[in-house]
Amino acid sequence: MATYAIGDVQGCFDELTALLEHIDFDKKLDRLWFVGDLVNRGPKSLEVLRFVYSLGELATVVLGNHDLHLVMRSEGFGKANREDTFDEILAAPDRNELLKWLRSRPLFHYEGDWAMVHAGLLPEWSVAQAKQLSDEVSSALVAPDYVEFLSKMWGSEPSAWSDKLSGWERLRVIVNAMTRMRYLTQSGAMELRAPGNKAAPYAGPTDCRPWFDAGIRASAGTRIVCGHWSTLGLLDRPNVLAIDTGCLWGGALTAVRLDDRRIFCQPCSGHAAPRGGD
After folding, report:
1. Could you give the CA distance from residue 41 to residue 135 in angstroms, rounded to a whole number?
2. Please, is 59 exposed, middle or buried when counting C-beta atoms within 10 Å of its C-beta (0-12, 13-18, 19+)?
3. Quick one: how many helices (H) and strands (E) in the chain?
4. Is residue 272 one of the residues assigned to a domain?
5. How many domains does the chain have?
6. Do the beta carbons of residue 43 and residue 271 sit within 8 Å?
7. Statement: the pTM of the whole predicted model exceeds 0.85
8. What is the domain range of residue 21?
9. What is the b/e burial string over 143-169, where b = at least 16 CB atoms within 10 angstroms of the residue's CB?
10. 273 domain-assigned
11. How confident is the model at residue 271 (pLDDT cuts 50, 70, 90)?
12. d(CA 112, CA 126)
C-alpha cells in the first residue's frame, strides 16, 4: 500500500490519467492525496471532479483557491474570470452533488508523518492549531447558512493573524493563508495584492519572503506537502515538499510517494500561456 500526493491538477484530466498509469495506481492498495485546485483553467474540470469524487475514501482532498472560486461562483459570488473553465460543472446534472462534496473538503489534513495544505501555514500556527482552524472553516462551509459565509469569504484583509480575530474576518484570514498565501512581509503579514506576489521565490515583492522561510514556524517540525505556486516548481526540503510543477502551463503534473518521497512527473503540453503561478 502506498500514498501518493498529487500537485495542482486544474482540470488537466488526461495528464492525471497518464500520471496514475505511470505510478501504477492500484485502487485496491493505494491512496491519493490531492493538494487542491482540482479544477479551473484546464480543459476537463468536470471529468477531474467526477473522477476524484468517484474514488471515495481512496482520495483525500484539501481545498485550493480555484476550488473555492468555483464554489463561490456557483452561488453567484466572486468575480467571473474570462480564463475560468468550469461552465461544464455548473451546467452538469450532478452539479449539486459534486459541489456539495467539494464544499465539504477541508483546508488542511494531517495524518501520520505528513500534513497537507494548498498554499501554506502562517508562522504562528502549530499543526494542531491549523487543524482546529481548518475545522472552523469547514463548519462554515457546510452550515445551513453557508451562502452567507461565501458572500463574506473573499478579500485580502485582515492580512495578519491574531488570536483575537472573530467572525468573518477570522475565517477569511484562515482561508487566505491556507489557499492563497505565498509571501509574508517582515512583520509576518500576508502579501496578497502587490505586483510580484506570484513570482518565483526571492523575486517577489520588496521586503517579503516565502511563507516557508519565515523565521520561526510553529509547524516546522512536521513535513508539509503543498501546491499553489507553479513558479516555485518542485521544492523538496526536509519539512516542506511543494509539488505544483505547472502542469497547466506546460510543465508537469507531479506525484510524490509519501512513504519514501520518490517523485514521479508526467510532462504536459500546456493548456494556457505561462503566467504568475496561480
Report:
1. 28
2. middle
3. 8, 13
4. no
5. 1
6. yes
7. yes
8. 3-267
9. eeebeebbeebbeeeebbbeeeeeeee
10. no
11. low
12. 15
| pLDDT tens-place string over residues 97-109 | 999 999 999 999 9
Tell me what pLDDT residue 29 has.
95
pLDDT higher than threshold 60 for residue 277: no
Cβ atoms 195, 201 nearer than 8 A = no
pLDDT at 195 over 80: no
* Structural domain includes residue 45: yes
Cell readout for 153 is 469569504
- Segment 7-65, tens digit of pLDDT: 999 999 999 999 999 999 999 999 999 999 999 999 999 999 999 999 999 999 999 99
- Cβ burial of 196 (10 Å; 0-12, 13-18, 19+) is middle
pLDDT tens-digit series, residues 211-235: 999 889 999 999 999 999 999 999 9
- In order of 86, 178, 232, the CA distances from 43 in angstroms are 9, 25, 23
Contact call for residues 125 and 131 (beta carbons, < 8 A): no
Q: Rounded to an integer, what distance in angstroms lies between the CA atom of residue 96 and that of residue 19?
A: 28
Instruction: Identify the three-state secondary structure at position 91.
Output: helix
Residues 6+ apart with CB under 8 A from 263: 234, 236, 254, 255, 256
Domain membership of residue 278 (yes or no) is: no
- CATH number of the structural domain spanning residue 101: 3.60.21.10
Residue showing cell 517582515 = 186
Question: How far is residue 142 CA from its own chain's centroid?
Answer: 19
